[in-house]
């Protein structure tokens, strides 16, 4: 099972908590898929409605690890301040660091991301950076003190799967000892299985489960897929080849023509 | 005095961040606060005085991906 900053996680399926039809359905999905880590966020609270308090109680009752995010932040300052607020509220040093650079793709601004990661690491945070598949950026994030790298599969919420498999494979090969998580863009269990088959340590997704017709059933499907993908990677997949190769032995075949 | 609270102008009579939070209904709630864009930890709230025109953000746990 993956280990992030010394903490072992029981399920490589990390699940977002947004966009579910109801809090009860979210809780059902987390329980049925035996998810161990969920991502959460911070938003403005109303002193009258106190919606966030009910949500926090729901998450606490699930007895899972929380990974707060800095979703929606567009600058180093915004992300760093949000991380500090999250650390106090959620009582964890883990932070999923998002610094968004562009609205159409929600692509990370990798320059600000690296700078924010450096500042937060120096301040004792354990940073999970949401980044692209760029190898040089991954190296800069490691230099900044990150011990986990989370490249995107495809843009957030797109469900397109792993759009740049070659780069993800390269990252895995280049960083054999760094926990790697495919974060964002996964739409189907087969995408999640593919990431695990490449040797990734975990996947992080939200929309694919939350927007499914039956989120709990889909969460279970994803949980099975990551387990299968991980087992396949551990088992050592065959190398693909261009031409057919008979699987049944040719030796000893009867001469019948 | 008039301050900005989560992007909306409000009139408050208290002066410290802690008492203003109580006045705005946040007693006993789990929230994180920022004053004019700077994080203010719980331990600093009672010693943080606000001035007219200051802006506070009061954030709570919420769904996220």
Q: Would you mind describing this structure in some detail?
A:
The complex is a heterodimer of chains A (257) and B (65). By secondary structure, chain A is α/β, with parallel strands linked by helices. Chain A has helices at residues 23-32, 51-62, 76-90, 110-122, 135-143, 165-174, 189-197, 207-210, 215-235, and strands spanning 3-4, 7-8, 13-16, 37-44, 65-68, 94-97, 100-102, 107-108, 126-131, 150-151, 181-183, 202-205. In chain A, the strands form 4 sheets. Chain A has a 5-stranded parallel β-sheet. The radius of gyration of chain B is 11 Å and the shape is globular. By secondary structure, chain B is mainly beta. Chain B has 1 helix and 5 strands; from the N terminus they run E-E-H-E-E-E. In chain B, 31% of the residues are buried. The model of chain B has no long low-confidence stretch (mean pLDDT 95). Chain B has a 5-stranded mixed β-sheet, with no helix packed on it.
How are the SSEs placed, and which strands pair?
The complex is a heterodimer of chains A (257) and B (65).
Chain A: E1 3-4, E2 7-8, E3 13-16, H1 23-32, E4 37-44, H2 51-62, E5 65-68, H3 76-90, E6 94-97, E7 100-102, E8 107-108, H4 110-122, E9 126-131, H5 135-143, E10 150-151, H6 165-174, E11 181-183, H7 189-197, E12 202-205, H8 207-210, H9 215-235
Chain B: E1 2-5, E2 8-11, H1 17-23, E3 32-35, E4 38-40, E5 55-63
Parallel strand pairs in B: 1-5
Antiparallel strand pairs in B: 1-2, 3-4, 3-5
């Amino acid at each position: 099972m993956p280990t992030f900053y010394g903490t072992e996680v029981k399920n490589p399926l990390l699940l977002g908590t947004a966009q579910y039809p109801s809090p009860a359905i979210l809780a059902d999905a987390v329980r049925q898929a035996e998810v161990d880590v969920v991502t959460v966020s911070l938003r403005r609270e109303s002193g009258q409605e106190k919606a966030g308090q009910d949500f926090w109680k729901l998450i606490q009752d699930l007895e899972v690890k929380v990974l707060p995010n800095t979703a929606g932040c567009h600058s180093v300052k915004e992300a760093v301040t949000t991380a500090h607020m999250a650390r106090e509220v959620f009582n964890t040093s883990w932070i999923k660091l998002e610094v968004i650079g562009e609205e159409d793709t929600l692509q990370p601004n990798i320059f600000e991301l690296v700078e924010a990661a450096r500042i937060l690491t120096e301040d004792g945070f354990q940073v999970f950076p949401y980044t692209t598949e760029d190898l040089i950026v991954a190296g800069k994030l490691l230099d900044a003190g990150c011990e986990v790298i989370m490249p995107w599969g495809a843009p957030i919420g797109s469900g397109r799967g792993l759009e740049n498999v070659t780069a993800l494979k390269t990252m895995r090969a280049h960083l054999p000892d760094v926990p790697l998580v495919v974060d964002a863009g996964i739409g189907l269990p087969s995408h999640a299985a593919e990431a695990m088959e490449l040797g990734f340590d975990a996947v992080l997704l939200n929309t694919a489960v939350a927007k499914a017709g039956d989120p709990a059933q889909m969460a279970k499907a994803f949980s099975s897929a990551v387990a299968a993908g991980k087992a396949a990677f551990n088992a050592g997949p065959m190398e693909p080849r261009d031409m057919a190769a008979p699987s049944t032995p040719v030796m000893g075949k009867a001469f019948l023509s | 005095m008039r301050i900005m609270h989560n992007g909306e102008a409000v009139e408050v009579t208290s002066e410290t961040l802690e008492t203003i939070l109580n006045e705005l209904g946040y007693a006993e709630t789990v929230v994180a606060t920022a004053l004019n864009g700077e994080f203010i930890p719980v331990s600093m709230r009672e010693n943080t005085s606000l001035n007219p025109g200051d802006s506070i953000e009061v954030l709570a746990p919420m769904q996220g991906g």
